[in-house]
Amino acid sequence: MSSPSFNGEVRWGILGAARIARSQFLPGLREAGGGRPAMIASRDVARAEAFARDNDIDQSVEGYESLIDSPAIDAVYVALPNAHHAYWTRRALEAGKAVLCEKPLCVSPQDTESVLETARRTGAYLWEAFVFPFQAQHCRLLELLASGAIGEVRELQSVFHFHLSRTGDFRLSRELGGGALADLGCYPVRLAQEVLESSDPAPGDVVGFGTDNGAVDTEAVAVVNYANQTLVLSCGFKRALDTFTRVLGTEGQIQLTNPFHPALSDTLLLKREGNTTVERPTVDTRSFTAALRHIHAAIREDEAPAHLAETSSLRSARTLEALARACSAPQIA
């Protein structure tokens, strides 16, 4: 990998002038410290220039190749539509850059395997942008589960919904790799790897139902069985924001108002034997902050890299593929 600049700051390049880069990545980068937005690339130079000006980014360039090949960039944030993740992530890895790629890493297990092989071959760090495993709330959840606070974990119930009103949004495009499962269902699937003893589900272990708009799935409800544990998930683009999640065990349950992008006001509620305790473990204002703080430390070799894509992305991709098959058969009216 290329080395950070002389003062130790990690110089980030952003592929794509996407809303999530402005609303999530950049605020988290500023709160994390240790890095700066050095370059933004878009296929539309005017859009790149406006994005750089409006978001205090050092430089704008036309086209993604110029950014990836720049010696002034240490790490690349891939904020492109899903169908473009695999190619540009491979290119950035081959250029020796650390990469944080938006989820899902790829649109198929085959592409995921190819990208992970590139990361192994080049030795460049690759993270899929599930940032919740780095957060204080998630660490507290795992601490409670490890301590036996709710006994043996039996079930994870997790939803992710929001109302998508923009008809031209890439998440409604089949060609761009959209759909509710890819955009939202991936979160409960990734969370299951953290709280359940999960592995790749067999074909008969996934049951689901879904609705579509003729191009992509817009809602899905599914059950995934992992040996003696179960994931029950619901996701979609048709209702108000909802991320409520429960982890159920033999002696109690833990409820989280938002396990994926918690705000300071979000709660972790522990219910056991008639007793209820409420905590607010979130410490950072922005959900990307803890992940970026760690990524900077890993690139500077101050910390060993954690939660790399190698450890989780292929399992997620295989489960999402099984969910898509299960949800595409019977349709909800």
Mean pLDDT: 94
Q: What is the count of DSSP helices, taking H or I runs of 4+ residues?
A: 9
CATH class of the largest domain, named Alpha Beta
Low-confidence stretches: 1-6
Tally of individual domains:
2
- CATH fold-level label of the largest domain: Dihydrodipicolinate Reductase, domain 2
What is the 3D shape?
globular
Output the CATH homologous superfamily of the largest domain.
Dihydrodipicolinate Reductase, domain 2
Q: Radius of gyration in whole Å, from Cα?
A: 20 Å
Seen as an oligomer or otherwise, the chain set is single chain
Biggest sheet: strands side by side, in what order?
A: 8-9-10-7-11-12-13-14
Helical content (DSSP H or I, runs of 4+): 25-40%
Main sheet record:
8 strands, mixed
Order of helices and strands: EHEHEHEHEHEHEHEEEEEEEHH
Please state roughly what percent of the residues sit in beta strands, choosing from under 5%, 5-15%, 15-25%, 25-35%, 35-45% or over 45%: 15-25%
Q: Which structural class fits the helix and strand makeup? A: alpha/beta
CATH architecture assignment name of the largest domain: 2-Layer Sandwich
Count the E strands.
Answer: 14
Distance between the first and last residues' Cα: 51 Å
